Amino acid sequence: MAIDPLELKLRPPELGITPYPAKMITLASGEIMVVREARREDVGALLGTVYPLIGVPTDYYDIVAARMYEEILGWYRHRTANEFILVGAINGVIAGIVTSRSVDHKLGMSLHTLTIKRGLRVGAQLFAAKMEDHIDYQGADEVYIVAESPIGFKRWMIEYELENRFDSYPAVRHELGGVPTFVLTRKLWEAVKAVKCTGTRPVPPEILATADKLIMPSEYTQIPGFKR
Amino acid sequence: MTARVGIVGIGHTRFGNSSAYDLVDVMAYAATDALVDAGILDQRREIDQVFVANMASGLFCHQTSIASAMVSKMDMEPTPAELIENGPASGASAVKVAYMAIASGMVDVAMVVGGEIMRKVSGWEGTDVVASMLHTEAEYNMGLTLPSFGGMFARLYMEKYGCTERDLALVAVKDHDNGLLNKYAHVQGACTIEAIADNETAGVVNNYIAEPLRIYSTCPVTDGAAALILVNMDSPKAAMFKKKAVRIAGFGSATDTHCVHNRKDPLMLNAVRIAGEKAYKMAGVTPKDISFAELHDAFVILELAISEEVGLFERGKSFLAVRNGETSIKGRIPINTSGGLKSKGHPVGATGVSQVVELVRQLRGEAEEGRQVENPKYGMSVNFGGFGNNVVAIICAKD
């Protein structure tokens, strides 16, 4: 399809993202979560899933959801360079979303991790999948990471023992707010991957098919009484 | 003969994350719930004495003197009120002290309220606060925490008796099945043995906390409160309550060495065994008479070990009983029908009171459908302080 010349000028140059093969993870509940790349046709379900959480201040859902909403639009409207989105779906229902982008072939910029279904380490699994995508599939040597909530700080900075690059600030700073930055290096990733990252590939077609058309959650534990 | 002491009111908050709330408010909620259950909300000044159970409000919440605050919040002045602190066994200790106050004849009606808000601090700060109950020089300063003790204890137990990580996971599955049905439980979510033990992805989904203990071997960090109204069943005041009393048939408590390494065999939980023996003797029953039990499974290995120490199973055999389903709701001796600390949660100061609330709910026949034990006669709770160095066992009876 022809693209308007002005629109072409507005779009960032793209490196080309290596496809991330879908995988499945059996959660503690016994439910199977399919983790796959988001496709353009998923955008409505993704935005509709994130939107209600913009009004939830608890555990910093508001800022994470608001920023992720923008990142999904940036990805959909070609306003963010080299962005990718992974989604976790249980029987097609979105359980969590992660956003990220490659700065160049060697550096990843982790954006956000949003857990919809809580208590099953969905967010932890999706974050690990994001790191797997950056380092094992995109070939990055480092991923810059910041946290916007204490939960995120515990999950990423503490549990992964990320490198603190505060000494290099402001030369090294994350794109989110330009704040001091933690880094997952390839070496660190290789050390923690076995205990942090899991999933089975290939996903059997009948299970993959359950995540083909994404479904917005009908309830959120974060929003008691929520009605769509 | 001492007075017969019964429980005529129970109250409980939904356990979980209450870090946005004030500890005294949360305890007052449970206390009000108990007063309503007892039918004496408007006669609450008839209560002669309040005992508040809490382990570390000063550290978790920067609040002290919470017994006074609780009574004031409840508009119950000038009712006397004291704080009982006995680590994670504070709750059962408060029940015991309330019993003794009534049995002594000093008071006729007592309220016990246990509460803790642990999530105002981060997880690692919370772990540090709890670890402060360990021996300062010999344990705490060496970096030991309660999960690390639980891990070492589990490893010893597994090596000695042949219990496996899968057996520990089976306890968690059973507890989560029960907690799923308990309206008060923190984690109301089932887990499957395939997902947390058998599947190839289980090692990451159910990650290690303190090897061999995994996340599903360990209780969550929980806030909440529970409350009881106790009465001298032989006093005139007993007539004011709307529900029939569940009698406290017996209790026992005991201590063990502060340092675990000073025990001849670290797998022997002597304080648990002695507390259980005392409770049985006072109640005039044996382990065979117990219909169900609430045992302090801060780590699921403790459910197994405690069940053996109080004689519900032979030593080293409890995990085989779990495999056979003997401790499930429909089993021979249901254990942790509430979901236990594993699923219901473990707000340390509240836990012992919460366990007794569960005994009462079961003995009244008020547990939710699917987790009600069939026609129970005696329920037993074991509240475990320190790493087994201060333990209180309580037996309640349906007369």
CATH architecture of the domain at 5-122 and 221-240 in chain B: 3-Layer(aba) Sandwich
Largest sheet of chain B: 9 strands, mixed
Order of helices and strands of chain B: EHEHHEHEHHHHHEEEEHEHHHHEE
Strand content of chain A: 15-25%
Main sheet attributes: strand count, strand direction, barrel closure of chain A: 8 strands, mixed
Beta-strand segment tally of chain A: 8
The strand count of chain B comes to 11
How many whole angstroms does the radius of gyration of chain A measure? 17 Å
The structural class of chain A is alpha+beta
Q: What's the level 1 CATH class of the domain at 5-122 and 221-240 in chain B? A: Alpha Beta
> Can you tell me the overall shape of chain B?
globular
Which strand order does the major sheet of chain A show?
A: 1-2-3-4-5-6-8-7
Flag low-confidence runs of chain B: none
The level of helicity of chain B is 25-40%
How many separate helices of chain A? Answer: 7
N- to C-terminal separation of chain B?
Answer: 18 Å
Mean pLDDT over the full residue set of chain A: 95
CATH top level label of chain A: Alpha Beta
Q: What count of domains describes the coordinates of chain A?
A: 1
Question: Any overview of this molecule?
Answer:
- The complex is a heterodimer of chains A (228) and B (399).
- With 228 residues, chain A is an alpha+beta fold.
- Chain A has 7 helices and 8 strands, in the order αββααβββαβαββαα.
- Chain A has a single domain, classed as Aminopeptidase.
- Chain A has an 8-stranded mixed sheet with strand order 1-2-3-4-5-6-8-7, sandwiched between helices.
- With 399 residues, chain B is α/β, with parallel strands linked by helices.
- Chain B has 14 helices and 11 strands.
- The radius of gyration of chain B is 19 Å and the shape is globular.
- Chain B starts with a strand and ends with a strand.
- The model of chain B has no long low-confidence stretch (mean pLDDT 97).
- Classes of the chains: A alpha+beta (228), B alpha/beta (399).
